[in-house]
Design brief:
Layout: H1 4-7, E1 9-16, H2 18-39, E2 47-50, E3 53-58, H3 61-74, E4 78-85, E5 88-95, H4 97-122, E6 128-132, E7 136-142, H5 147-155, E8 159-165, H6 167-170, H7 173-180, E9 188-192, E10 198-208, E11 212-219, E12 226-232, H8 234-246, E13 252-258, E14 261-266, E15 278-282, H9 287-298, E16 306-314, H10 317-341
Antiparallel strand pairs: 1-7, 1-16, 2-3, 3-5, 4-5, 6-7, 8-10, 8-13, 9-10, 11-12, 12-15, 13-14
Helix pairs in contact: 2-4
Length: about 350
């Protein structure tokens, strides 16, 4: 095994965004709470994330109490408090300090695992990936010459989100004009679909990339365009089936989130209930992009965004010099011993 000192290569120091890990966990927990309350037939007026809290609205106190009892028994990481605003009865949930610490430690470990998976996909032999301090990761890639490609794959934070489109608001030219200026209606975000078509997407996340079990590049069977074929786990398949069944005739946006910025890859109309846990992403992407997106999603999403804070490229010339001198010294030594023995 020849390390950086002998083969050359690249050295990266990555900073993990721990606040981003908490935010991502809260978004995922919000989706879980919706499914849980639906399964328990407890009606609510919406679940939203407000900074580092989850707010659940109810129409009456009895329903709120039922929900509180269910959440206390099934969500031990959440600390629940009651509040009231006008006619709305609210449950406000925050993560307990011990849970936050555990999530941050888990995020660091998951990021290291994800980096291992991505680097294995790149075919780099004997990489060094290890934790440094509480929130940093060191990555050394011996023999890597295409540093731009390595940097792109390591630094990208492609995650998948499925949300519903606000069709009613998107159909209003006045509302869309205001949204384009930075004032979308409450509970929505303004995006442009690939091709430039604007639309308003609801903030509520229906499904995230955490539910993926596999992602493979391929082609759309109808249009023969490059596509990414996704497989969901059992919980993700059930959520996707429920959402498509309850929203037939509406549009569903599939977003790729990279470095905090989202892009709507496609926003098809839901024609029928979709079961089986098989989903396809397609929409004006190249074959190379389909391969890269599949790699990132298949290797696992990063639990928290990362930023490269230090980058060093080490040339192989010094190592080659040392290797040559090592071989020469061995050869001369062997020759001297042979002469002496004779």
């Amino acid at each position: 095994y020849l390390g950086l000192d002998l083969r050359g290569g690249v050295h990266f120091l990555l900073q993990v965004d721990m606040k981003g890990a908490i935010t991502k966990r809260l978004d995922s927990t919000g989706a879980d709470l919706r499914s849980l309350l639906r399964d328990k037939n407890i009606r609510h007026g919406g679940i939203s994330r407000e900074r580092n809290t989850l707010v659940i609205k109810f129409r009456d106190e009895d329903t709120r109490e039922q929900a509180r009892a269910v959440l206390q028994s099934s969500q031990p990481d959440l600390e629940l408090t009651q509040a009231q605003e006008g006619a709305d009865y609210k449950l406000v949930a925050i993560l307990k300090p011990a849970a936050e610490l555990r999530i941050q430690e888990s995020a660091l470990k998951q990021n290291i695992t994800t980096l291992h998976n991505r680097i294995n996909e790149l075919g780099v032999a004997e990489p060094v990936i290890q934790q440094q301090g509480a929130d940093r990761i060191v990555v050394q890639l011996p023999g890597v010459q295409d540093t731009a490609k390595a940097k792109d794959i390591l630094g990208r934070t492609a995650t998948l989100e499925v949300r519903l489109v606000d069709d009613e608001a998107s159909a209003s030219p006045t509302v869309m004009e205001e949204a384009a200026k930075g004032s979308p209606p409450a509970g929505t975000e303004y995006y442009e679909e690939r091709g430039g078509r604007p639309l308003l997407v609801k903030k509520q996340v229906v499904l995230t990339g955490d539910r993926l079990t596999d992602a493979q590049p391929g082609f759309d069977s109808r249009t023969q365009e490059p596509a990414v074929h996704l497989s969901l786990d059992s919980a993700g398949a059930r959520i996707f089936k429920d959402v498509t069944r309850d929203n037939i005739g509406k549009r569903m946006a599939i977003l790729l989130i990279e470095k905090g910025k989202g892009e709507v890859v496609t926003a098809p109309v839901i024609r029928d209930e979709i079961g089986g846990g098989r989903v396809q992403i397609s929409g004006r992407m190249s074959t190379t992009e389909a391969n890269d997106v599949a790699l990132l999603l298949r290797a696992g999403s990063l639990a928290a965004p990362m930023e490269i804070v230090e980058e060093r490229t080490i040339g192989p010339s010094l190592g080659a010099d040392n290797i040559t001198k090592g071989f020469q010294s061995t050869a001369w030594g062997f020759l001297a011993i042979a002469v002496f023995m004779s």
